[in-house]
Structure formats: C-alpha cells, structure tokens
Amino acid sequence: MTLLYASTFADALGKLSHNEQKQVKITTVDLMMDPKGTGLSMERLNRAGDDKVWSARVSQDLRIILRRDGDDNLLAYVGHHDDAYRWAERRKFIPHERTGAMQIVEVVEREEMAGPLVYTGSSSEPATQEAQPFWALSDDQMLDVGVPSEWLEAVRAMGEGALDALFERLPAEAAEALYDFATGGRLEDHIAKPVEPGSDPFAHPDAQRRFRVLDNVEELQAALDAPFEKWAVFLHPVQRELVGREVTGPTRVTGSAGTGKTIVALHRAVHLARGDEEARILLTTFSEELARSLASKLDLLVQGQGDLGDRITVRTLDQAAEELYTAQFSAPTRATASQIRAIIAKATSAGLGGELTPQFLLEEWIELVDAWGVTDAESYATIPRIGRRTRLGPRQRETAWAVFDDVRQRLTQRGLVTWAMIYGQLTEWLRDGGALPFNHVVVDEAQDLTVAQVRFLAEAVGGRADALFLAGDIGQRIFRLPFSWAKLGLDIRGRSHTLKVNYRTSHQIRAMADRLLPPSITDMDGVEEGRRGTVSVFDGPAPDIRLLDDEQAEIACVAAWLKECTSERIAGGEIGILVRSEGQFSRARDAIAAANVGNSVRIATMHDAKGLEFRAVAVMACDEDVLPDPVRLAAIGDIAELETAFETERHLLYVACTRARDRLLVTGIKPGSEFLDDLRASDTA
Ligand SMILES: Nc1ncnc2c1ncn2[C@@H]1O[C@H](COP(=O)(O)OP(=O)(O)OP(=O)(O)O)[C@@H](O)[C@H]1O
C-alpha cells in the first residue's frame, strides 16, 4: 500500500480555509490508516477520463479527488463539491507515451481553448496575426520533452501572448521546455532520459517532481501542515539530482535569484544527515538573519524524522569560526574598523606612509593586507592586486608596509584580532592537524565568502568527497571584490551546476531584473554562470518603474500602491519596502503612514533583503544620489575597486527587485538612478 501526494493537491489545499484544511487532514490520515477507505464515503467518478478516479467525502461540501489503484491511493485534488468534480472531469492520469513519466493531463476542449491558450484549429500555418512560436515543431520534438500527445495540436496553434499560461496548463517539464524554446533556448536541452519499457511511471524523475510517496503519518502530516512550502516535498529533477549526487570534491550550485539554491542546500544537508548516523553537518551562511531563516526551514524539513535535525548545526560561518577559535585558543576580541582607522591615522601623522593617504592605506589594509593575511613585506610585494588598479612601486610598497607592520604590532599588543586573522589562525591550526567538529559543510550565499573564509574551508575539507557543498550566485555578490577560489585551494571547476527554474518571481519581474546583469557571468576561475534559459513557473502583473518630481510625490505614489496591494488582499506582512540604506527609511515609513496600512509592512535595506521574499515589493528611493551610494563610492580611492563597487551596487538593486514574487514597484526622484535605465530597457531576452 502506498499513499502518494500530488503537488496539485498541495496547491488546492493551500487555497482552503484553516478549518477546512483541518478537516482534510483528518480524512487523509484516516485514508492512510485504512487505505481501502472502508470508513469513508467514497464514490467512483465514472465520468472522469480514467476509471480509477474517485471522490472521498470530507464534509458536506468538501471532496478529495483520489486515484485508486488497488491499495494505492494518490491524493490528487481537494476542493468544494462542484469545483472538485469539475477538476476531476477535466483530468486524465496517464504515463507519457514517450518519456514514461506519469502526468496529470488536462483535457483539451476546443471551446475552453478560447481562454488563455488561443487554439486556432489548424497547425499547418499560423492562423492569426499573432506569432505562434511552436507552429513549426514536429510531434516528435514535442513528445521528446513531455508534451502530452493530445496537446500537440493546441500547442502548435498557441499564440505567443499565451506563453505564460503554459505552466498552468501543461505538465511542468513540457512547459519549461516550450517556454525556454520560445524565449531563445533549445528544446534539445530538455529531452528527458529514456526510461526502460514497463518501468514505474511514478519513479520517473519528471513524475517525482509532482508525486511524492508518503511513507508514514508523520510525513503526511508534515506535508499537509505546510501546503505552501511545496519545496519541502517536491523537488525539480535537477534539484533532486544535485541533492543526492556523490561528488569527488567541493561542488557548487549556482543559478539566478529564486531558482532554489537555498532549498537545494537545505535538502543536501538533510540528505547527508539521513545517509549516515555519524554525519555532523555544518549548514552555514553569512548573516544571522539568513541563518535563522535556514534554521526554521530546516525544522520543517526534519519534522517527524527523529533526531535527524541534531546532526545538522546551523550557524553563520563567523559564529562557527568564533566558537572554534574560542575552543582552541580563547574568546577573540575583534578590532573595530574605527580602531584600525585610528591606528593608521596615528601612524601617518607620525610620518609613516609617506605621500600615501590614510584613506588609501585603510583600503589597502582591508582589501589586501588583512583580507589576504599578508604578514611580511615580501608577501605584500607579490600579492595579486585584483580589484585594485593602483600600482605601487617598490619604494612606495616599502613605505606602505611600515604602516601595516605598525597596525599588526599594535593589534597584537592590544590582543585584538580581525575576522581574517581568526580564520587565518584556524587555517594554521587545521594545517597542523586540527579537525573541524563537522565532516560536511554546506554553505549558502557562497558568492560573498572572503579570502580568509575560502582558505579556511579549503583547508577544512581538503579535496574530500562530499565534504563541501556551496550554493551561490555571482550576480548577487554584494560585499566582496572577486578573487580566484582555485588559487586558494578550493577548486570547483567541473563541479558547478546551474539551476534554471525560478520558483520565486513571476516571468515579468524576473525578465526585468535580469536586464541589470549580463546574460552570463564568469568567475575568476573561468567558471561560467549562465542566466539565459531561466524560466519562471508563474505569471504576474508587469512591474512598474515610476520617477517622481520630489519625495512627497514619491511617498504618495508608494502609498497609493500599498493601498492597491491591500485592496487585493495582500497582507501587510507580505509586503516589503526596500531602500539602499537606513538613511531612506523615513521615506518608506512616511509612505506606510500615508497609506494607513498598519505597521506590518517590512522595511529593510537592500543588503538586509538577502534571503527575504515578499508577495509585493516596493524598491524606493532609487535616486541619482542614492544608488549607487555616493558616500561609498567617494570613499574609494582606487579606480578598479570603484568599478567593482559600482557593480556590487547594481547587484544590490538586482537582489532588491528579485525579492518580489508577484508585484514590484520601483520608484525614485527624477532623474533617478542610472541603473533604472537598464531596468527599463526593452526586453531582448
Ligand atoms: N522545488 C521547488 N518547489 C516549489 N518551490 C520551490 C522549489 N525550489 C525552490 N522553491 C521556492 O522558490 C523560492 C526561492 O527559493 P530559494 O530561496 O532557495 O532560491 P535561491 O536560488 O536561494 O534565491 P536567492 O538567490 O535569491 O537567495 C522559495 O520560495 C522556495 O520555497
């Protein structure tokens, strides 16, 4: 006996009220305990396209739609009486004739096709003025990517305006392939692996993304408790493969914002914990807020799975390093930026540093000397000056080194360390035989790792198989200058994989945000992260960019938008207002006050927005003198570093825009941030 849970069931359950969900849970648990459903009121739906389809009564009005095959039950849908019956009448459960994957196929009805998919009848030539992106595709081409046979004609006749409806109407694998093709990709990249004749249609990777076997009541309850958290139950085949893959060395998963990198990292940690009772896993990221969010998602994943969660420790990497440092040495006292600034100022006023300005020396210390753990004048002369274009002659280097030497000595005298020094010392300790209390490390948001952290991780895991799993997106690097990981001993070349399905943001928002970044970004080790071919799984209203005359006008514009959101029943907690820096918080607050929408709307800086997501986002104060941040840029003396900082400012706007699921408003005061010109550029994807 098996109980299968379909993603369509999760979607439908999520639309019911809290009380109705409770009633459904009782009925499904009964069904798990008694698969024959003897105590339930069941009815076979003869009119359904499949004689194995039944309805089970939950309450007077609620019905579950099931597919029953012997003792096996598949929870397919749940809804109010008429809605549930209508859904069942229009669905067939059949293995795909080419791929072998079990699909739930919507019945194609001509009159109904006047809806979002425009069916014009003939496939031989385009019948309307609207372009028909698939009209020249052969049956074979479409069958190869999982288009159900009865949809072949309808897809060929589809107008391009109906593209966004693909995901609602077709099985996901077919929708992804067709969408990618229509936007410049290749169908060949989506051909499913052939299956053995007679193999289980539910075991096919494409079927596993929509059907999941639930082995016990705990698993069922966990799935039913969080119908919105579909990621906890259903993974894309590529995500699933990455989670379970055995790798010979450090590996990295990349992908643009919202493609599920964090989800893969979480499942990976659980997979490692499940596979080995002795496993000790560090699941880590860079900020405390992100670590908290990882921990709460992890709780959901390990719910009902005994002590599995105890094998996984969630910490920021800095917290983990600090704990380790305290255990091995003593509790570190960290030098603050102003202490370092003061030491440099003192050194220069005492005549050290020659012509070099304190500002230049501070940057040089932060970006090179401290970041790279330089401890002597010889190493300082040979360190790669990536991101710093200012060349220093031998004499200047010597002069500068006198200052850095002074900084190092003074920090030592006062018992102060920097983060880089903490990691540096831990790396030495590992080199001398020390070992982490973890045998696996999973890092989320790895694009912002520092040089010292990369060295530490490289030393901690060496080349050990399955020991280090990194998730990140170079396009979202918002803190660091780029550098080569491979040169520091962390080589992921040949073991980097890109996710292409965006689950968070609508097509419209993703397409607009993508204009901020090049179609592919190559890291310092030559590993390319392609953003082309990424598809979103749902559709939404077009994002809006508004440039206003002054702050008051902007506040009024955002207030009107907030009211519109709440009138569309978007709760305050599902709305975020993001700004470049805390200095613009007052504008966000004024907009919330003017809209009178209570105080649950979240305000955050673009930096803190990482890891958050909202149904609706307003990115406010994108003014010419706010983004890129002129104060930050003015503080930079080196041209190349200026360029990098400029890029990270652009990345910040990308991060902010991609926090939105359905609605996005971007505002600023005329003439507006220069980045808005890119956002506005016509979509050439
Ligand atoms: N297989 C899946 N099924 C359903 N939802 C998913 C799936 N994978 C990811 N999601 C959802 O997509 C959204 C984005 O996922 P996630 O945060 O992992 O993306 P990300 O690539 O880490 O994004 P970012 O780069 O912005 O941090 C989340 O709401 C997540 O729940």
UniProtKB/TrEMBL annotation:
<feature type="binding site">
    <location>
        <begin position="255"/>
        <end position="262"/>
    </location>
    <ligand>
        <name>ATP</name>
    </ligand>
</feature>
<keyword id="KW-0547">Nucleotide-binding</keyword>
<dbReference type="InterPro" id="IPR035093">
    <property type="entry name" value="RelE/ParE_toxin_dom_sf"/>
</dbReference>
<dbReference type="InterPro" id="IPR014017">
    <property type="entry name" value="DNA_helicase_UvrD-like_C"/>
</dbReference>
<keyword id="KW-0378">Hydrolase</keyword>
<dbReference type="InterPro" id="IPR000212">
    <property type="entry name" value="DNA_helicase_UvrD/REP"/>
</dbReference>
<dbReference type="Pfam" id="PF13361">
    <property type="entry name" value="UvrD_C"/>
</dbReference>
<dbReference type="Pfam" id="PF00580">
    <property type="entry name" value="UvrD-helicase"/>
</dbReference>
<feature type="domain" description="UvrD-like helicase ATP-binding">
    <location>
        <begin position="234"/>
        <end position="506"/>
    </location>
</feature>
<protein>
    <recommendedName>
        <fullName>DNA 3'-5' helicase</fullName>
        <ecNumber>5.6.2.4</ecNumber>
    </recommendedName>
</protein>
<dbReference type="InterPro" id="IPR014016">
    <property type="entry name" value="UvrD-like_ATP-bd"/>
</dbReference>
<keyword id="KW-0067">ATP-binding</keyword>
<keyword id="KW-0413">Isomerase</keyword>
<dbReference type="InterPro" id="IPR027417">
    <property type="entry name" value="P-loop_NTPase"/>
</dbReference>
<keyword id="KW-0614">Plasmid</keyword>
<keyword id="KW-0347">Helicase</keyword>
